[in-house]
Design brief:
Number of strands: 0
Shape: globular
Organism: Aegilops tauschii subsp. strangulata
Protein name: ORC6 first cyclin-like domain-containing protein
Distance between the termini: 55 Å
Number of helices: 5
Keywords: DNA replication, DNA-binding, Nucleus
Main location: nucleus
Radius of gyration: 15 Å
Subcellular location: Nucleus
Length: about 120
């Protein structure tokens, strides 16, 4: 029996990351759009490869939500940004700043299509 606990992996395995993305997409009402979820997972992997988003102050859940928004915009799927901001735990101003930072870091720019709920 080892006295030392195993060191957890810094990045979750791809299956776990995809499962997280699917769960977050379901909470945002995007579970019916598989291309959006797949594109968001691809963008999230690119984020992990290209730069350290923790330096920007963007957590893993917020990064997944922003990647879902970018993917939804690419496929012109209606996205509820107010729900995304609520789920991210950030203020709207911080969320928009993080969204712009990730979008510029990834080099993607799509025409935005947002849906704001009445609540």
């Amino acid at each position: 029996r080892s006295r030392f606990a195993p060191i957890p992996a810094a990045n979750p395995p791809p299956a776990a990351a995809a499962m997280d993305m699917s769960a977050i997409a379901a909470r945002l009402g995007l579970s019916g759009s598989r291309p959006v979820v797949r594109k968001a997972a691809e963008l999230r992997r690119l984020c992990d490869i290209n730069f350290d988003s923790s330096v920007l102050g963007i957590g893993e859940v917020c990064k997944a939500i922003i990647c879902l928004e970018i993917a939804a915009t690419k496929f012109q799927v209606i996205f509820d940004r107010s729900e995304a901001v609520r789920m991210s735990g950030m203020s709207e101003k911080a969320y928009i700043r993080s969204f712009n930072a990730l979008q510029n870091g990834l080099g993607v720019k799509y025409a935005t299509l947002h849906f704001y709920s009445a609540s």
